[in-house]
Amino acid sequence: MSVVSGVLAPSVFPDGGRRLVVYVVYDRRGEVEDFVVHALAALREHAAHVLVVANGSLSAAGREKLAPVSDSVLVRENVGYDIWAHKEALEFAGDLSSYDEIVLANDTWYGPVRPFGPLFERMDAREVHFWGMTDHAEEVPNPFTGEGRLAYHLQSFWIAVRRDMFLSDSWASYWRDLPPMPVYFDAVLKQEAVFTEHFTDRGFTAGVAFGFEKYPTTHPALFNADLLIEDGCPLLKRRPLFHYPPFLDRHAVIGRWTLETVEKHGYPMPLIWDNLARNVPPRVMNADAAMLEVLPDVDISYDPTQPFRIAAVVHVRDIALIDELLDRFAMLPADADLFITAVGTEDTEYVRSRIERRDDIDDARCEVRPLASAHGRDMAAFFVACRDVWESDRYDLVVKLHTMKRTTRRFNSQRYFRRHQIENIVSSPGYFSNVLSLFQREPGLGVVFPPMTHIGLSTMGRGWAGLKHPVSELCKQLGIRVPLDDPSPLAPIGGMWVARPDALRILAGQRWSVSDYPSAQARGARDLARMQERLIPYAVGERGYHCRTVLNLEHASISHTALEEKVDQMFSTTPGYPVEQIQFLHRAGWVGHGGPISLGRMYLRMNHPRASKMLEPLLALAWRALERYRRVRARLRRGRSSVVVSGEVSGL
Question: Which residue has the higher pLDDT, 36 or 583?
Answer without folding.
Answer: 36
